[in-house]
Amino acid sequence: MNLTIDVSKNEDVHEVKLSGEIDVYTAPKLKDTLLPLTQERGSTVHVYLDKIHYMDSTGLGVFISALKSTKEYDSKILLINLQERVFRLFDITGLKEVFQIESSIRGGL
């Protein structure tokens, strides 16, 4: 499956709506889209993950890179509506403690 990325801007908030899978094949596309948004000083990036049904460690790496970028550029990233399977990755790796994750956890397919 592919990854679809829809980016829009509402005031100072970039909204990134994702659907599909984040894996070794699609992660570079996500990284190329996400990192420049976090490199805008003072910006906020909302990433909607409710339509992501699979993510591997490569995807986690993209989000870790984005988080590091927010520290460097004084921006923020917020992960919204994670599917249960995706949330579990953040949970078992301890990353749910370092990322701001919002909204309810949704069940898988």
Helices, strands, pairings?
Elements: E1 3-10, E2 13-22, H1 27-38, E3 44-55, H2 57-73, E4 76-80, H3 84-92, E5 100-102
Helix pairs in contact: 1-2
Describe this entry's structure for a reader.
The protein is built from three helices and five strands. It starts with a strand and ends in a 7-residue tail after the last strand. It has one domain: Transcription Regulator spoIIAA (2-Layer Sandwich), CATH 3.30.750.24. Helix 1 (27-38) runs parallel beside helix 2. Helices cover 35% and strands 35% of the residues. The chain is of the alpha/beta class. The protein has a five-stranded mixed sheet. 24% of the residues are buried. Helix 2 (57-73) links the parallel strand 3 and strand 4 (76-80). Residues 3-109 form the STAS domain. Keywords: Phosphoprotein. This is Anti-sigma factor antagonist.
Note the gap between the termini: 15 Å
CATH architecture: 2-Layer Sandwich
- Summing up helix and strand content along with how strands pair, one would put the structural category as alpha/beta
DSSP strand content: 25-35%
| Count of runs of 4 or more consecutive helical residues | 3
| CATH first level | Alpha Beta
Protein name: Anti-sigma factor antagonist
Function: Positive regulator of sigma-B activity. Non-phosphorylated RsbV binds to RsbW, preventing its association with sigma-B. When phosphorylated, releases RsbW, which is then free to complex with and inactivate sigma-B.
GO molecular function, one term: anti-sigma factor antagonist activity
Family: Belongs to the anti-sigma-factor antagonist family.
